[in-house]
Predict the structure.
Amino acid sequence: MADLSQPPLPPARPAKQQVAASFSRAAASYDSVAQLQRDVGNALLARLPVAMAPQRWVDLGSGTGYFSRALAARFPATTGVAVDIAEGMLRHARPLGGAAHFVLGDAERLPLARASVDVIFTSLAVQWCGDFTAVLSEAERVLRPGGVLAFASLCQGTLRELGASWRQVDGAVHINRFRAFSQYQSLCGASGLQVAHLAQVAQVLHYPDVRSLTHELKALGAHNLNPGRPGGLTGRARLAGLLSAYEAFRQPQGLPATYQVVYGVLEKPLG
């Protein structure tokens, strides 16, 4: 049986400049391989309170603007603001519309006024933030009383099959590191926001081979960005070892890649 155990992970995060550059380069290819991102974002949209009637919303980590356009369709006659740290993504999204404003910005230091928005929607972006406490604090600052932060992120256990396969080959860091779900629980609970919903959901995608998975990660800009990642090209022997190890996970549908998704809906108190 394949080994899915995971060693303790240090709280290393990729530098913001690396994240921004990687996703900027991926702007043109992102939507062609972003099925997981669309599925997760749609599931997050479904978790928004049904009776919401915001005047202004923010799509934080807006990427290609796919969900900026979805938010504009759900909340017509509102003002939308798309915020992303990757300038290349904003350049790609701006002509496609959806938001009224496209702003280069950091989730840990939002370029928005205090109590100026009703909804912050952020799907598969905040896992790249090193200081999630700052993300929550900034959300609390810019939300109006009664406003909602809805986020989807990734937690520890994501791509565990790929990580376990690489551990049979060498000791280098080959997959991105994410926080444990328990950390999301404690950080959200300690914030100034009220937790209306917080859950971990496993989503499994299947691929015909390892190259299909790694190609998709690269096209998304979500390949390994961690400090300590191996440099240079992967040798043939190591690649052959990875392919062999991953085959132990094969299922009738193909090679599985598990994503542990965190869904959170937090509300700013009225008082």
User: Anything to note?
Assistant: The beta strands are 56-60, 79-84, 101-104, 117-123, 143-154, 194-207, 255-267.
